[in-house]
Specification:
CATH superfamily: Response regulator
Shape: globular
Protein name: Low molecular weight phosphotyrosine protein phosphatase
CATH topology: Rossmann fold
Order of helices and strands: EEHEHHEHEHHH
Main location: cytoplasm
Strand order of the largest sheet: 3-1-2-4-5
Number of domains: 1
Keywords: Cytoplasm, Hydrolase, Protein phosphatase
Family: Belongs to the low molecular weight phosphotyrosine protein phosphatase family.
Structural class: alpha/beta
Strand content: 5-15%
Catalytic activity: O-phospho-L-tyrosyl-[protein] + H2O = L-tyrosyl-[protein] + phosphate; a phosphate monoester + H2O = an alcohol + phosphate
Largest sheet: 5 strands, mixed
CATH class: Alpha Beta
Distance between the termini: 26 Å
Length: 198
């Protein structure tokens, strides 16, 4: 399952970020997509981003996100609007980053990217940006608490991803991405993105 983001910059070639591949595209990656979308909306820079998610498999194509994930997002006041789809060849040619949920997704996508000429995507684990060093975002097979765990991980990772943009992608880590609001301000003041200890 994956989630993709495309940054649009005036007078520069379009920057594309493919984020959060997952096996089915109904649990983890739609949550990551929704979290990232809320971040850029709250920063009033949503017109600079193209955000999506997709699957590495065909299991869930055409299905909406898991109802428990939808309930988790509603609890945090975040809209979720997605229909599962599979990763395409064009994704590897369009997006700068593909950020995966787990090592199985990572292996699958790196294998597929090796078959595509001029692949431009940098393929990584989304969890590599987690300040708590939880590398894998586990599939929430259990109850609502597992979806909450995925949500909290996605918030940490998406925040860190934005904060650690390379200079070529953002001349200022904060202001270029978030306009007049810094990421620190956004996460400290927005109740949707307060991280809770377990």
């Amino acid at each position: 399952m994956r989630f993709r983001v495309k940054v649009l910059r005036p007078r520069r070639r379009h920057r594309g970020w493919e984020v959060h591949p997952e096996t089915g595209n109904i649990c983890r990656s739609p949550i990551a997509e929704a979290v990232f979308r809320k971040l850029v909306q709250d920063a009033s820079v949503e017109n600079q981003w193209r955000i999506d998610s997709a699957a590495t498999s065909t299991y869930e194509i055409g299905n909406p996100p898991d109802y428990r994930g939808q309930a988790c997002m509603r609890k945090h006041g975040i809209n979720m609007n997605h229909i599962a789809r599979q990763v395409t060849k064009d994704d590897f040619l369009t997006y700068d980053y593909i950020l995966c949920m787990d090592e199985s997704n990572l292996r699958d996508l790196k294998r597929k990217s090796g078959q595509i000429k001029n692949c431009k995507s940098k393929i990584e684990l989304l969890g590599s940006y987690d300040p708590q060093k939880l590398l894998i975002i586990e599939d929430p097979y259990g109850n609502e608490e597992d979806f909450e765990t995925v949500y909290q991980q996605c918030v940490r990772c998406c925040k860190s991803f934005l904060e650690n943009l390379a200079p070529d992608d953002a001349s200022s880590k904060h202001k270029t991405v978030l306009g007049t609001r810094t990421l620190e301000d956004l996460f400290n003041k927005d109740d949707h993105f307060k991280i809770h200890s377990n």
